[in-house]
Structure formats: structure tokens, C-alpha cells
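Task: fold both queries, return C-alpha cells.
Query 1:
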Amino acid sequence: MDWDGKCLLLELALELQQYLEAPSWPLYSKCRITDFSYNRFTVAFSEYTVSVCFGADGLQLEFSEDCPHRLIRKCLVDYLSKTLSLPLLLQGLYACEEVLGVLAEFVQSVDVALVAANTPAQLLLQYDGFCVSMNLLGSSAVELNGITNAHSTLATGVQSSANSYFQAFLQSQLKSSVPTDPEEQPPSLSTQPPPPPPKPVLLPCPSPIMSPWPGSPGLPSIPPLPSPGEIRLGLPGLQHPYTHSLSLEQLRVLLLAPAKEPSPMEAFLGSLNLLEKFVQQAYPQMQYTCDRGVYTFKADTISPSLSIEMGSTPVLKLSLKPLQDNVWAPKELDGIVEFFEDEVACRPYSCNAMISFVRILQLPLPTLKSFAQLMQLHSHPLPDAYWNVYICVTLPVSPDLSDWAATFVPGSSGVVFKQKLVVFIRMVQRNSGKELIFPLMHDPKTNSTYMARPSQPKSSLHIAVDSQLRKAAQEALPGHHESSLYRCMKALSLSPLT
């Protein structure tokens, strides 16, 4: 580190020490410098520590491993580099500690990213294709502004109604909250520290102008880290007609839930993302219309409709309407809807699971009807079956799939259809719990169903499964009126395979 860097660190430490010794400072006795060298020094605050050092890219901050402020470290570094004021930075760290703690728990439990935009108090909560913009109002409040698409290149199938859904979601969750007028300024709750003697002014005055240290270059007028309720922040281009202010407890209810249950926010963002994925995957093969948030599609023989149903936990709802008489029985359509609810529109809200489901709906009619029966077998195993049969909408991690690892990776879609259908099946033996996962092949043109053979037979069980499938497929061939897919899997579930 060069001499200028050492001098800057010393100036930062000396200024902070003066504040630490001033009883009039709001954080007096709440933080301390624990060690110091000319290369770095460490400050303990609350239950955490932050080290300040000077590297090739300028000032750096290193937070302790469990510190929630690590989520926005880069933005905090930029802020410190502009303001050169550790007392002001520490006040901001204390002001947003509890809110960031809740956000950190949410980020750790859900596949989301938290990004600081423009200032450390202005955040984006990014969930796959969508971002929720929010402002930190201090230790006990946060302001949710709206939702937008995270990627400008992403198809915006549901973007037009995303904010309407978001407003409906917040209103259903925060029934006692009233959207604030965008022109109304919240009351000031300023926490700017008074300057300790003997220095005249070290931190921003109400007109946020930094006073330079003796011998240091002058600093431009820079807005300080917003104190609670002091500044309303908005992202350029993401202004929304309403905002919702949440207390810390309301934020906890919105973001956190028991370990095995999705939180309301996760369920909403997951459902919205799945709806977007359905639109992307189905269009243009399926034309669609949107009326008041309900997306209605048109396939050959059925018309799927999707919408997000608000409640304590938002749910993506599917309804199916037959387009032709005497083609679909209500039980078949109910079975498809039940499978969708249990395997697709639920945690972990996998886009690849939705891709599998859309591919199923686009199958030729005989294969689709047979697949609907297979969904029934999945949801309601036969009482006298030796094996329970399950459809893998996404691929699990399994040594059984090692021969196909180069083509099918864990988590990818478990249903592929081009000229032939490939669907991954998981079979579980009832008595022993023994499990077998394999790719099932079906050719609609020849009505043949068989197991894709590995390069080398894994076990006698693979050989027995392949033999049973081919036998059942041969029995189904005459007439070709019914797809052999379900018949083969039903025969497999009823066979001991010994």
C-alpha cells in the first residue's frame, strides 16, 4: 500500500476515534476500534466487525462472516469512498441492521439475490426474471416500490400485469396498510450526529456538504446515507404510483416462514416467474389472451387458463377447459390439474418443471391422454402395485443417470419431446424402498414404449424393467387406438420384477 493510502486510513481512524470519545454521538459506547495498523484497522459494532483497508482499487470493507451488511458490501465501499466518513457509515450500518438481517435470512433460504442500487438504502431483490425495488427507511421500516423485469432481453409476457399482481399481493398481505401518496414526504427522523469537539464540523450538515480534512482535496456535495424517513428513494425509470411501507415485523411475516413452507414473498415471486415461463414456453404454439390477470391459452383440444390466486400464501392456479365434446373426461382434466399443483406450482418453483409441463400439454392427443392417466398413477398409486411410479418433472441426482449425465444434468427438464418422447421415471418398491430412475422412450408414430438402454446394463433390475416394458408395448400395439405409454407403466407397477 502506498503512502497516500496509509495516510487516508490514519485520517479515517483518527476521525472515528474522536466520535467514539464523544458522549453526544448516538453510537457512543456502541462501537470501538479493536485493532489498528497502517495497512488496516477493525471496528466492532453490534455483534459484528468491519475491517477497513486500502487495496489496488482503493478503500475496501471486509465484514465478519455472519454480518448481514455483506449483502451490500460493494455499495457500502462506494459510499465510503465518496463520503470518507466512517461515523456516518456506521450510523447507516446500525440503522439498517435489523432489516438487512431479515433480508439475509430470506436470501439464504431462497434462490434470490439482493443488489444495492445507487445508494446502500436503495435495494433490488432479484428473483430469477423479476426484481422488487425497495428503500430502507431505518431500523424498523422498509418501503416496497414495485416490481420489474430483471433482464431487458427477457420476453415480457407478464410484465404488463406484474405490478398489478404485486399491488394485489401486498394489499392481501398488508390489509391494514394503505398505499402512500407518492408526493407525500414521510416525517423526518434525522439521526445526524453532532460534531464532537474540538473539530468544528466533520459530518454533513443539513445541507449535505462534506468538510474536508486539513490538507485533503475538497469534496463535492454528496448526499449522506439516508437516515430513517429522511429521503424517499426511487429507481430511475421504475417510478410507481403507489408504495407500501412495512414495519420490521410485517417484513418478517412477508419474507420468512417455517423451514419447509414457502414465505408469502417466495410463493408470490415463484408463481409470477412460473407464469412468465409458461407464456414463454407455450407461445407461439399456443396463442393466448389476458383478461384482468387471467391468461387463457388455446391448444388443440384443451384451453389452459392460469392466474395467481392471492391469499396467505399466493398460488398459481390452473384450470382446463375442453375445446371439443366427448374427448376429455372431467376426471382426466382434474388429474392434470392435481399433478400441476403438486409437482409444478409449488416449492422450489422450478422453471424447468414448468417447461416439462408445457411440453406435456403440447403432446399429440393420444399421447397426452395416456400421459394424463400416468399423472393419475403418479398421484394415486394402484393399491395392489409392487412399485410406485413417479414422473420426474426435473432430474434428480442419481447414479442411475450417470450414462446420460452429458446430456441430462440434475435439475434440468425431465420431459423432452421432438419426434419421440423422453420422460424420466422414478420407481420406488413399496416393501423395501428400493429406487430406480431411468429415461422412458415413447414413439407416437409406432406406439412403442421402451427404456433407453444404458451403455452397459446396470443391474438385473434394468434388464427386468426393459423386458416388461417391451412385453406390455407389444400387447398394446394392435389397433393403435390407445397410446401404449400408460399401459406399459401400469404393467410395470404391477410386476414384482424379480
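Query 1 returned. Query 2:
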Amino acid sequence: TLFRSQTCQSALCIIGYILSLGFLRLLFHWRPEWYVWAHGVPCNLKEADLILLRTTDAFKQYSWKKVTWIYLSGLNNTRIGQQDQPIIADESSVVNRVIMKPDYKVRCILVHKIRYVRDRSEEH
């Protein structure tokens, strides 16, 4: 499930952490789905910065991950003057579709040492 963080909700949670002497934070550690529900609102994939994951085994455990950016600034510096040429020769390559140009950055989440990226061409 996809969520977008809300500043006012996060501020209220921090106040709750202080007033409960950390018990609320401990509760959110035990129940990650409550953490995500308390800090954000449901949204679409393009706006999401928190993702709530649930295992498919018998335990159905929840975890949450932050959506992060990877900046590929090294590619930008080595290809000055070649902005119209793709980074990978194959125009339909997944690598070319996930890189946001001209900033050369990629949105991803890290789950069990594997980075997952969003294919922007499949938004619609």
C-alpha cells in the first residue's frame, strides 16, 4: 500500500512519543502498519514516499520502506554534450525508462538488499 507523509501527522506523532515517554514509538515498532497509517495518507505511486509491505506467508507480517532517490550524477558529468543520446543503446531498455532526465536520478526502495525501481512508462 502506498502512502504520502504528512508533516502535521508526523508532528502529532512526535508529540505523542514525548508525552508517552517513548511507548508510542515502541508500539509503532511492534506494529509497523500503525506507524505508516499514523504518519501518512494513501496516495498513488507517483506521490508515494512510504510503502507498506506485507509478507505472503502464514504470519502476514508488515514492514514499511521509504522511497529514496539515487542520483546518477557521474553519468551526467561524463555525457556532457550528448544529452540526446540514450545511456544504454537500446531505447526500450528498462534502464533508460527509469532514469529521470536531465537530473539523472532514479526513485527506488530497498528490500532485503535488493533495490526496486519504478518504471515511469507504466504509470498510465
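Both queries returned. Flag for query 2: DSSP finds five helices and seven strands in the chain.
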